Amino acid sequence: MDRGVAIALEGVHRTFRAEAGGEVPALAGIDLSVTPGDFVALLGPSGCGKSTLLRLVAGLDRPERGAVRIESAHIGMVFQDAHLLPWRDVLGNVALPLELLGRDAAVRRARAEAAIAQVGLADAARRYPAELSGGMKMRASLARALVTEPRLLLLDEPFAALDELTRMALDDELRRVWRAAGLTVLFVTHSIAEAAYLAERVVVLSRRPGRIVLDHRVGLPAERTAALRADAAFAHETGVLQDALRRGGALA
Amino acid sequence: MNRAALARIAPPLLTFVVGTALAEVVIRILDVSPLLLPRPSAVWTAATSEAGVLLASLAATGGAVLLGLLLSSTIGVAAAVALAASPWVQRAFYPYAIFFQIVPIVAIAPLLVIWFGYGPRAVVAAAAVVSVFPVIANTLAGLLSVDPNLADLFRLHGATRVATLWKLRLPWALPQLLTGLRIAAGLAVIGAIVGEFVGGGGLGIVVLGAMRQQRTDLVFAAIGYASLLGLALFGAVGLASRLALRHWHASEAKR
Known about the structure:
By secondary structure, chain A is an alpha/beta fold. Chain A has 7 helices and 9 strands.
């Protein structure tokens, strides 16, 4: 089976020019290598450069120094909030990446319908974003990211704006998709519990400029259920991550 | 007609009927000269007895307005796309787009007659010139407000500039484009009539002719026809907006 792509970041620096003049360093010397098929959470406080790191991996931005190496492959991306086109129904939104890649109509439709079914939205394929709940919009956004059958999925705090129950359902959905499709996932979050529950490996970043404080392999079983959230092993993992965040200056 | 529609239409209709009746009575009692202010009934008589001339003039003015709007919306959208293409182009030209907006059209109209000659071409040009700037300004604002995450998504999947324009930027700007068009529709009627004052033809020349013959009733009747034209255009653009944006959320459609 296809096991996703590897990612390698070497000494990556990225600085932004501030509006008022001066420079704001976002990332200061990031070394990170991700093996194919891994599920990595990037955990850090707001403004620590997590999203910048994701954009660098996606090729939407370039570092001043250092290198980002990634096999050329289709990348799926999910943003904070769903960011759907309001004038297209779910099917049209999900098919969009294939349209931009120049696939023909029959392929687009079949693949989009499959991706919509994959995230459990089959009944809503013909509805417009304005008619969907926040959770349904996010599912559509996830389907849009999966429609190109990507080997790398990048998610930027995708479920942060959703209510707790919806977020937990989507966490399970994402784990299921990852296990079934066997792709590499890079998931940015500021939620300790979400990072521990979802990921196989958690990389904790410090306050700006972002450095890696902890690179931690999560010691939880592959099968993750709601019951796990009350387990002692889970509490131990979140404790480790919280401690690292504190060392990174996030909980000062 | 259902109750809700009746509740919406009845109050303004009542205001119109009562207001007109009141004007009729007051003008009769005070015995105001029809040269200054004709009675509503006299205006109505002029509007119906001269209906042939007025309708033909309305058609001429309406045609010029529609052509002018077609020109200004095409040129306006194209200009907005060009301005949005690069910050440098924008900095170089946008101040002039603002500047031309404050040049009074009445001052330009004679110039248009010099360039295009007497007749409908100058009138169409006048309608287009006054209505083009709100289209540019509103469309540009819409094009520049594109969601940066969606722009990233298009880049991620290797979208061409043309595909990004057609599938993202222009549809995204549609609510503001339509707002610009609604403002433009009203201005185009003004532009056409001012153009006709100078260049001849249409309702503008009916108003001028009636003024010279001291037919104040006919002046009012012509103004009434011109207002109907503005109202019809405003309604048509509103209907087009509702159809085009029917899937957008209410708040987004008003953006």
